[in-house]
User: What shape does this take?
Amino acid sequence: MDTLQILRSLRDSFVENGHEEAVLVTKDSGKADTDVLVTLHRSFGRLSEEVQGLFYFSEDSGMPLFICRLILGEDLPDDAVLPICTEIALLNPPLPFGAFAFDPLSAGVEYTFQLPVDESRTEKELLAEADMCAALSLSVAELNVHTLQEIIGSYGV
Assistant: This one.
């Protein structure tokens, strides 16, 4: 399974669909621990927000996963943590997959979806699954992020 080639193809798909800011950062560059596709999405949700996407393969959990992480905001002030975490607790249960979370290391909010990877799949099948996972993650996060963005915005972040 050539995960780097899958990420290259996924990057090309983003670019073909008008996302000019899609950059592949490889572990060989020394800038990342794993190969990761980094994207920037403008006008995400109701507010004119920029959201960073991170798309990569990982085996840290003992099984191969394709991970979609969308970073919705970082460096939130301490007094924003409780309202954000409360809203996250209300948002997550009805989501069809993935979840919003507060990241204490970056003091930020993210949406993450992890898809187990069936290594018996062909590269073409894995690319189709990764592409679908990325599109669905962006869609679910964007449809459900409004209140979180309003809370983040009310703290001037």
Observations:
- Strands lie at 22-25, 36-44, 49-58, 65-73, 99-103, 108-116.
- The longest strand covers residues 49-58.
- The mean pLDDT is 89.
